[in-house]
Amino acid sequence: MHASGFIPKNTKLDKPPFTRRAFIVSSTLAVAGMVLGGNRKVAAAAVRANVPTKQVTLVQFSDAGKPLGTVHVAKVIKSDAEWRRQLSPSAFAVARKAGTEVPFTGKYNKLKAKGVYRCICCDTALFDAASKFESGTGWPSFWQPIAKHNIVESSDRKLGMVRTEISCARCDAHLGHVFDDGPKPTGLRYCMNSVALRFAKAI
Length: 203
Hints:
Elements: H1 20-36, H2 40-50, E1 55-61, E2 67-74, H3 80-86, H4 89-96, E3 115-119, E4 125-128, E5 132-133, E6 141-142, E7 151-156, E8 163-168, E9 174-179, E10 189-192, E11 197-201
Antiparallel strand pairs: 1-2, 3-4, 3-11, 5-6, 6-10, 7-8, 8-9, 9-10
């Protein structure tokens, strides 16, 4: 065979030039070429087909704060483009990019109605209004989450200090931070961003 891959006429071959093995190899290379060539949707679909969806354990609540039992649900994972379509620009900046709203500007800072504060991204119950208190900081503050299962704590070393970041357990939305200067009985202050929450009024 010539270097070009062209087979001149009258050239005798010991076996057919395109065997089953060659077909399999070429097919594999073609698939790899699609992925390397930027066919990310095909690659993503293949990954999703083979990787099980991550599950999280949450406690469900009514809008009145009544526990409805523990459930195992799929983790909510979306692209930035999908989140942008769902959220307002300010909610996206805070919940998906760990921003902070300007103090005293959030719509829930002074709210005193009964109900449940839910995640703006996935509607997971996060805080009961019964645990809300006036902290004077300019952000809605709570002395405990509605259920420990529903939030995640992680270390935040930005701004030259170490803080404990609070995120939604189901979708990883950034909610705010927790501090140890809150009232009894916990002594904690969960300082949240209004724009990362959705208030569901108790009926």
